[in-house]
Structure formats: structure tokens, C-alpha cells
Amino acid sequence: MGELEAEKHVRYILSVEKKKDGFESLVIEHLRMNGAYWGLTTLDLLGKLGAVDQDEVVSWVMKCQDESGGFAGNIGHDPHVLYTLSAVQILALLNKLDVLDIDKVSNYVAGLQNEDGSFSGDMWGEVDTRFSYIAICCLSILRHLEKINVEKAVDYVVSCKNLDGGFGSTPGGESHAGQIFCCVGALAITGSLHHIDKDLLGWWLCERQVKTGGLNGRPEKLPDVCYSWWVLSSLVMIDRVHWIDKEKLARFILDCQDRENGGISDRPDDAVDVFHTYFGVAGLSLLEYPGLKAIDPAYALPVDVVNRIFFRK
To answer: Which residue from 21, 25, 33, 245 lies 20 to 30 Å from 144 (Cα-Cα)?
Structure first.
């Protein structure tokens, strides 16, 4: 099946991180918080989180906080719930949640809930089930889910369910694997998975596997390593992961590695980036690939980190 080039992936992520303009060559400057989360989580799954200067990371993360309590994608940018979750996940990874004013951050996130239970991403008000997942995941890590109307939040997510068993970004929106992950994750964290028709959704998700073993996000699309995370974690959460060919999927992910310089791409022989490196390694972790730490499918953090959050004294 080929080996995971773990050492090279570690070197690749550290080299990207060292380019001081941020994850400049790969992700646009305003996404740096997400890039840091992808890179650091990958390092942790590979057992190499100690390779970064954690104090430097924490100090940079905290400089991205806005007075609203939310976090921006980089210093001096506008806050958004997307970057706020990445910031909270990074601090959870580093066991540094105590540097946060938890009330301030959780009030920012809770303040984005709308009357119908949906969530806006920021003050401009775009609504998407991605933001429902992000807000629920973030507040759960901060242990402040009680600050929102959870029942309304769940009802809104369920209102985005389609006849094919999948979910869209808003009610009536097309089913898409990325949105399905967000909706299943939100329902998993709130203990509401009974709203899902697991066989129907499981079947739709399994049909995402193409001949090469890779997974796509919608019918008739090309496979992409990132769906190794979104489709697979959804299947794990609804207990239908045995319905796909796991070995073929693992082989597809390993075929997308740059075996010389490290990193993983969307498809074999394409250019690598931190985003696909993270989703490839996270997918292999869900497939229980040897030598990788286990990742939690709902929180997208290593299982030991999630246990530390919820079982700390």
C-alpha cells in the first residue's frame, strides 16, 4: 500500500510555518489561523507537536483577537466565527485554553445565533450550516453550549436535510459532503443524531467513492483528498464506515503524497498544500493507519485532546 512519509510531512509543515509571512505561499494571508490549525493538528497526529515553539504560537493567536471577543484569520483582520473556532482548537491542542477570557469568546460566538436558530459567520450576517457546526463545536470545547438555544440550533440544521438523506448550506440547498460533515458534526455534538436517516445518508456518502478509491463531494465530481475527511468522519459518526473500501481509500491518500519534499495534494501529482496534508493525515487517522494518533470525527481534534477538555477536573 505504500508508506506514509511522516518525517517528510513534518519537515514540510515546519518549513511552511517558518516562512514568516505566514502560510504565505499556500494559503492567502487572511486564512493564516486556519493554516496554523491544519498544520499544528497534523503535527500532533504525527506525534510531533513538540517541534514548534508553542509560546510563539499562543502569543500570535492572541494578537488576532478582536475586542468583540472573536478571532481574525491574521493580525489586524476582521473577526469571524471560522477563525474563532481555529483559534480555540489551536489553544486546545496546546493545552492553553486558560489564556482565554472564555466568557468573552463564548459570548461573541453565542451572539451570532439568529432568531430561527441559524448562525451568521460574522457581523455581516451570511448564514450557512457551516457556521452552525462551527459555533456548536466552539462553544462545546469552551463548555458553554448553554449560552445558545441548542434546540433551535438543532431544528435549523434538521431543516436543511434533503430527500437524499444529505444536508445543504441552507434549507433546500444541494447536498454536499462538506455541509453534511458540518450538519452531522453539529448533531453529534448536541446528541441529536437520531434526526438522521443513517442508512439513507450512509448510502449517499458511500456512493462518493470512485474507482481509484478516492472520495468526491458530490455526484459526478473528481475525487479529492479533503473528502477523505468530510465523507469519512460523517460515516464514522453515523456508524456506516464499514460500507466503503477503506484500503482503497488509504491507498488513494498515500498516492497523493509528495514523496520527495513532503506534503499531500488533492489528487496524485498535483501541488501539495497544508490544507490537503491535514485532511489526508486526518483521513488516515480515521482509517486507523498505524503510527497516527486517533482523531475525533466531530471535533476534528486528536482524541486525547478532546478527552482532556471534557474529563479535566
So the answer is: 33
